[in-house]
Amino acid sequence: MTSFLKRIVPIEILDTVLVEYKIGVTRQRDTIYFQIDKDGRCRTGKIMKYNPKTGHRIKDENISCKVSWVHSILKSRKVLPKDWQLTQCLFGEHLLNKYPQKRVALVESEKTAIICAALMPQYLWLATGGKTQLGDKLKVLGGRDVIAFPDIDGYDAWKEKLYGTGIKVSDWLENNSTSEDRAKGVDIADILLRNYSNYSESTYTFRLSSPDTILKYFSESSHNEIKALIDEFELIPVSFTKLP
User: Fold this and answer.
1) Domain around 237
2) Is 153 exposed, middle or buried (0-12, 13-18, 19+ CB in 10 A)?
3) CB 62 within 8 A of CB 53
4) What pLDDT, on a 0 to 100 scale, did the predictor assign at position 243?
5) Residues in Cβ contact with 17 at an 8 Å cutoff, skipping those fewer than 6 apart
6) 53, part of any domain
7) CA distance readout (Å), 204 to 75, 118, 198, 207, 222
8) Phi, psi (deg, nearest 5) at residue 135
9) For residue 34, what are the contacts with CB-CB under 8 A and spacing of at least 6?
10) pTM of this prediction?
11) Suppose 92 and one of 20, 126, 128, 175 were both cysteines; which one would form an S-S bond, judging by CB atoms 3.0 to 4.6 Å apart?
12) 133: DSSP letter
């Protein structure tokens, strides 16, 4: 996963995000997403295999251990007792104390949280670890301003599950995705990456007189998405920099 992102995100930004989220790598170059709670306790680590060229998860049934867990490995090696029980937490939860004023953006996958943290650091991006992982682990978000960005196929489920919690569920993907996006099952990171790659001007820093001024630096086909992203995230663009 990191090999793929290094070709897209400036290395200085990516390194900062990887350190903050304490991303690990196995000897086989698989990615480890450690779940560290608000008190700094490591609950477990999810180990995932990615195609280094596409950044997509490897789902080939002929490849074993596409997803594995640090606690399971430790139990098999008798480092943890056999009856040890896992209680999961949000991925990125350990950053809640570090950034008490940031608005929290909740997504499904850990990879999505990492990509969004690199491209939109004004939010604190946390991941549930899956579409159905919306139970007690969300209690830690009490008192925080939270907006949830489910994957395109998870909007209805999250809208129902999060009703009454005070967490806003964004309908941006629901309202702005194409039929092709729906077929691919995109998430907010896919859209951000698509527009990030559409930015083609070989220039440096620009001062913007209005939010619409930024549009001329992107391909015309992405203008509607850029406008919608600015509205959804309540952004006030004042300048931007073309990164090498």
Assistant:
1) 199-244
2) middle
3) no
4) 45
5) 9, 114, 117, 118, 121
6) yes
7) 52, 19, 16, 10, 21
8) -90, -135
9) 22, 23, 24, 42, 44, 45, 70
10) 0.79
11) 126
12) -
Residue 68 corresponds to which tokens in the numbers above? Answer: 């594995």
**Is 217 inside any structural domain?**
yes
Domain count, the chain: 2
Query: Of 28, 44, 76, which residue constitutes the final position of a domain?
Result: 76
Residue 136 lies in a domain: no
Residue 90 lies in a domain: no
Helix, strand or coil, per DSSP, at residue 160: helix
User: Which secondary structure element, helix H or strand E, spans residue 191, and what is its range?
Assistant: helix 188-198
- Mapped onto helix, strand or coil, the DSSP state of residue 164 is coil
Q: Which residues face 105 on adjacent strands?
A: 125, 147
Q: Distance from CA of residue 46 to its chain's centroid?
A: 15
Final residue of a structural domain among 35, 50, 76:
76
Taking every pair of Cα atoms in the chain, the longest distance, rounded to a whole number of angstroms, is 62
Give the pLDDT confidence of 9-59 residue by residue, as tens digits: 888 888 999 999 999 999 888 999 999 999 999 999 999 998 888 888 877
Whether residue 137 contacts residue 88, with contact meaning beta carbons closer than 8 Å, is answered with yes
Residue 196 token pair: 């990030």
Tokens of 97: 């104390």
